[in-house]
Amino acid sequence: MVEMNGIDRSDFNQAEEREMGERDQARIAAREPVTVVQETLAASDLPFDQKAHDLLIRGIDQVATDWVHELEHTRENSKRVEQMVLERATKVKADITALYLLGSAALAEARRGDDINERLAAELDKLAEERAA
């Protein structure tokens, strides 16, 4: 299909369709189970020695220490975020309360102004009636 500026849009549509087909194939391939080849080690004739035992224990301790450190770091970050949320919520509540009080004061001032205007109008009506009489 040729548009007014002379560009054939069918080439663009074909390229888009090809890209969509490739993306679909990639998605399907990602869903298929992946076969993992595991290397088998030759059986050892001797049990592991004290040095290997100590290295294994030390390695496990290091992994546990690293994970605990990461969890502590995550906990501290969560506490900071929690504190920030509480501070912001408190500020928003204070702002809403201030707006409410300001609105109440504005409403009271408007009512007071209306009362004054009504009294002034009544006094002006009385003066106009006295002059007319």
Can you summarize this structure?
By secondary structure, this protein is mainly α. The chain has helices at residues 9-31, 50-132.
What does this structure look like?
- There is one protein chain.
- With 133 residues, this protein is mostly helical.
- It has helices at 9-31, 50-132.
- The chain has two helices and no strands.
- It is elongated, with a radius of gyration of 40 Å.
- The chain starts with 8 loop residues before the first helix and ends with a helix.
> What is the gyration radius calculated from CA atoms?
40 Å
> How many E-type strands?
0
Instruction: Please summarize the sheet with the most strands.
Output: none
Share of β-strand residues: under 5%
The computed structural class is mainly alpha
Distance between the termini: 92 Å
Globally, the shape reads: elongated
SSE run: HH
pLDDT < 50 runs, ≥5 residues: none
**Proportion of residues in helical segments:** over 70%
Number of continuous helical runs = 2
Mean pLDDT: 86
Quaternary organization: single chain
